[in-house]
Amino acid sequence: MRMNHRVCAVAATAMALGSGVASALPIVLDQTAVYRYINATAATSLGTPAANWYTPGFDDSGWFVGAGPFASSPGTISDLGNVGGPWFPGPADPIPGAYTQWDVNYSPYLRTTFTLAAPTALTLWLAVDNGVNDLYLNGVVATAGVNAEGAAYRWEHVFDIAAGDTVAGVNTLALWLEDHGEATGFDLMITFDDEDVNEPFNSIPEPMSGLLLGTGLAVCWRRLRRHHR
Fold first, then answer.
1. Where are the alpha helices (DSSP H) in the chain?
2. What is the DSSP letter of 138?
3. Residues paired with 101 in a beta bridge
4. Which of 59, 86, 138, 154 has the fewest CB atoms found within 10 Å of its own CB?
5. Containing domain of residue 66, as a range?
6. Which helix (H) or strand (E) holds 189?
7. Is residue 133 part of a domain?
8. How far apart are CA 88 and CA 71, in angstroms?
9. SS3 assignment, position 145
10. Is residue 96 included in any domain, yes or no?
11. Residue 148 has what pLDDT?
């Protein structure tokens, strides 16, 4: 979604600068997490997975293994590097030059897990070019779609995950990414809940007008903080 300056001005007026320090939040899923994946390249293409591919009990042992970030080239990783200030967890390039190949015009399926001692409120930080067709946590689909033209930037999409969406023990995150050509890029982190009120991972959908306004304000708010850190 591309927001004009007027909407961003409204966002700046409506919101006061937060004080949450995301860089200090405990990390439960790092940006170099290991994923089981398929269909990121011609060599890793296995066709459409079984209908239950996103569920915790699905057997992904036959899938390929790769660590984040995913990208089409080293140049794409530089697009992911605008991290800084107290509002963006994780270093810009945790393992310089390291990434898993995701070729253009491919739509890979990814799965990974993380462990919690107890149900915990979390924040999911996402950068992707171009988008996510489906995003699941413990078999529950996110109500918010992620699809935007342009390069992937840390962290352009931020979601609050309620404690009730998590479980004590192993939690399963599953994503179906998609690309429109030219370049790809994907990276993701999950931390303990930050202080900001972000878009909820799973909620009852709002009326369209309210959804668009809320999404627009959230996008502008993150851009304002990124450019005024």
1. 5-14, 74-79, 208-227
2. T
3. 71
4. 59
5. 24-204
6. strand 185-192
7. yes
8. 20
9. coil
10. yes
11. 67
Query: Residues for the chain: how many in total?
Result: 229
**Whole-angstrom distance, CA of residue 137 vs CA of residue 91:** 25
Q: Is residue 6 part of a domain?
A: no
One-letter amino acid at 100 equals T
Whole-number Cα distances in Å, 119 to 30, 43, 158, 194, 211: 18, 38, 19, 16, 28
pLDDT digits (tens, 9 = 90+) for 30-50: 999 999 999 999 999 999 999
* Domain-embedded: residue 134: yes
For tokens 């009990």, the residue is 57
Rounded CA separation 7/99 (Å): 36
Residue % of the chain over a pLDDT of 90: 48
Return the CATH number at 47: 2.60.120.260
**How far out from the chain centre does Cα 54 lie?**
16
Please give the tally of structural domains in the chain.
Answer: 1
